[in-house]
Design brief:
Length: 261
């Protein structure tokens, strides 16, 4: 991926931090079988903010993202977001094996009924941003796990979303690929200035990427801690070795241990 994005940023949008792009207001969720997944969750994410939620397994993190994406309907409170302006990257890249990388990247635009000829420049740009332009004619089975995640990112980038939802996108990758994709994701975030909502089980990943880290309790998930992350962007990969990074990670780890049932 082009690592100069943060300095180039030719089409970086200006931040409108007064108007959050995604709002959860006193949101609760109880499934029809009675499972109480989320309890009075309130927070918002503006463009230029990257918020990560960590919490014990089964506390309701994916449910929160599914509600934001419109796949589930909350049973209490409010979720406000423009559903036409959301990008998603989930743990499974969900590429069609019979389509090339480029045809996969065109998929969402196609489903939105957009004119593909008119979008060819956007598809090129998205492929370029994730460093897959030269692999655009390959099929998913010819790609590494990291490349598949990049293709999944590019597919959403074509639509230029205001809000990007990430559900453990790099959880299945090895440590080094994951750190590299973290660097690349931050370059993309600074270039496109979307509102990011990210879920991970890795505290280091949460602190490295985010402007803010929220800790959830065990189910039903509630926000039990809220940390501003003090590091400036662009962030070098070696901020992970700073004492401040270790201290913040330690606090989050302490909260998480307390959150486990
Ligand atoms: N459709 C559903 N019907 C009933 N219960 C559900 C449904 N979907 C999820 N749940 C339950 O809701 C709770 C929250 O699930 P969710 O997948 O949001 O957790 P999570 O925090 O993302 O977990 P993990 O970290 O393990 O991925 C779990 O107890 C899960 O079993």
């Amino acid at each position: 991926m082009n690592t100069d994005l943060t300095t180039e940023s030719p089409d970086a949008e200006t931040s409108d931090s007064d108007t959050p792009a995604l709002v959860f207001d006193d949101l609760s969720m109880t499934f029809p079988d009675g499972t109480h997944a989320l309890d009075h969750v309130s927070f918002s994410v503006s463009r230029g903010e990257f918020v990560t939620v960590v919490g014990p397994s089964g506390c309701g993190k994916s449910t929160l993202l599914r509600i934001a994406s419109g796949l589930e309907q909350n049973t209490g409170g409010l979720c406000q977001v423009d559903h036409d302006s959301i990008g998603y990257v989930f743990q499974d890249a969900t590429l069609f094996p019979w389509r090339t990388v480029r045809r996969n990247v065109e998929l969402l635009a196609e489903l939105h009924g957009l004119d593909l000829k008119g979008l060819s420049g956007k598809v090129d740009e998205s492929l370029e941003l994730v460093n897959l332009l030269e692999h655009q004619d390959k099929y998913p089975k010819q790609l590494s796990g990291g490349m598949r995640m990049r293709a999944s990112l590019a597919r959403s980038l074509v639509l230029q979303p205001d809000v990007f939802l990430f559900d453990e996108p790099f959880g299945a990758l090895d440590e080094i690929s994951r750190e590299r994709l973290n660097d690349e994701l931050l370059s993309l975030f600074k270039a496109k200035n979307f509102a990011g909502l990210f879920i991970t089980h890795s505290i280091a990943e949460a602190v490295f990427l985010s402007t803010r880290v929220l800790v959830m309790s065990a189910r039903p998930g509630r926000i039990i801690a809220d940390y501003e992350v003090p590091f400036e962007y662009p962030r070098r990969h070696d901020i992970r070795y700073l004492p401040e990074f270790a201290e913040l990670s330690g606090q989050i780890s302490h909260d998480l241990r307390g959150a486990h049932p």
